[in-house]
Design a protein that fits this description.
Blueprint (H helix, E strand, L loop, with lengths): L3 E7 L3 H12 L4 E4 L6 H4 L30 H14 L4 E2 L2 E9 L2 E8 L5 E10 L20 E2 L12 E5 L3 H12 L3 E5 L14 H9 L4 E3 L3 E5 L3 E6 L2 E6 L2 E4 L7 H7 L24 E3 L14 H4 L2 H13 L9
Parallel strand pairs: 1-2, 1-6, 2-3, 6-15, 7-14, 8-9, 8-14, 9-10
Antiparallel strand pairs: 4-5, 5-6, 11-12, 12-13
Helix pairs in contact: 1-8, 4-5
């Protein structure tokens, strides 16, 4: 078993990194456990993606984000976060999944499973959960959803040239995917359960998608829902009844949500109506003493409320409280 840490951070995304940096600045013995690579969710974004926000709003650790464009690309962001992690020498264990968090405030045991080797146990006085939400898609629960032709993530458009593609959803991701597929020669049908596109679509994307729909370049089915997916077709419930459409591939871009099962296994209480985990708004400590929450997991299913732009400040709130609490513990800061 490893020496006792002051802080163990679960999740190596921008928010988890920001929390770890604040802890290191405070002189606390810190470790980050990440089930994938550094900023794993960003790594799995589409290769050509451009962020909606400006570069300075993605900055952490007071390290400037240099970018050719006002809105940086995925490639630039990956390089930036590599540089930040290297600058602060953030200790991170990659490709190691947290299986359980046991114990109590001041004496937690975190069981993990590395990609290779036997399970490990790390000891920590405080735990910060910054696990994000991108890994668990909102499933539709319909026949055929698990077919190989269905993906809850969008990558690149080239492979779908001259193919019939359905994009399910009506927010930014769906609009961007539909436009990209159309411009790479796919026959695109956008299917959205609401009567119009989401109001959250960015202002520079909305005119493009609306005009492509208006001119007929992209077919849009509003107030509609896919009821079944088969190898060569999909069945869609529309206001005019069910229709069967020829189909080669489906991008079900229906959103994502935090790992509520894992949070509950730690003892964090989830509001049954909003799915928000219980936490102190000032310190971000959950109802489990010594377990803090950071980033988008605080928003429950309302994942459009917290982004890197505001989640990056959660580390300051958390570590301010951790420092105060650990100051009473003579063993803090030793490992």
């Amino acid at each position: 078993m490893s020496p006792t840490l002051d802080v163990l951070v679960v999740g190596g995304g921008p928010t988890g990194l920001a929390c770890a940096i604040e802890a290191l600045r405070a002189g606390l013995a810190t470790l980050v456990i990440e089930k994938g690579c550094l900023v794993n969710s960003l790594f799995n974004y589409p290769p050509g993606m451009t962020f909606f926000t400006t570069r300075e709003r993605l900055e952490i650790g007071d390290i400037p984000f240099s970018s050719v464009n006002l809105k940086p690309t995925r490639t630039e962001a990956l390089e930036y976060y590599r540089r930040v992690a290297e600058h602060y020498r953030v200790p991170i264990r990659y490709h190691e999944r947290v299986l359980a968090v046991r114990g109590a405030d001041g004496n937690f045991e975190i069981e993990t499973q590395p990609a290779t080797g036997r399970p490990l146990v790390h000891k920590a006085r405080k735990v910060i959960l910054a696990t994000g939400y991108y890994d668990i898609p909102n499933r539709m629960g319909i026949p055929g959803e698990d077919l190989p032709k269905v993906s809850h993530y969008y990558g690149e458009a080239h492979a779908f040239f001259q193919r019939k593609v359905a994009v399910i959803g009506g927010a930014n991701s769906a609009a961007i995917a539909a436009l990209d597929l159309f411009r790479h020669g796919a026959e695109v049908t956008l299917i959205h359960r609401e009567p119009e596109l989401s109001r959250h679509i960015k202002y520079w994307i909305r005119p493009d998608i609306e005009n492509r729909i208006k001119e007929g370049s992209i077919r849009a089915l509003y107030s509609s829902a896919v009821k079944e997916i088969a190898p060569q077709w999909i069945c869609v419930e529309t206001p005019n009844g069910k229709v069967q459409l020829e189909n080669d591939f489906v991008f079900a871009l229906t959103g994502y949500h935090p790992d509520f099962t894992f949070l509950e296994s730690v003892g964090v209480q989830i509001d049954p109506k909003t799915s928000r985990p219980q936490s102190n708004p000032k310190t971000l400590e959950s109802n489990v003493p010594g377990v803090y929450l950071a980033g988008v997991i605080l928003s429950g299913r309302h994942t459009n409320e917290i982004f890197i732009e505001n989640g990056r400040f959660h580390g300051q709130q958390i570590i301010a409280d951790v420092k105060k609490r650990l100051a009473k513990d003579p063993g803090a800061g030793e490992c």
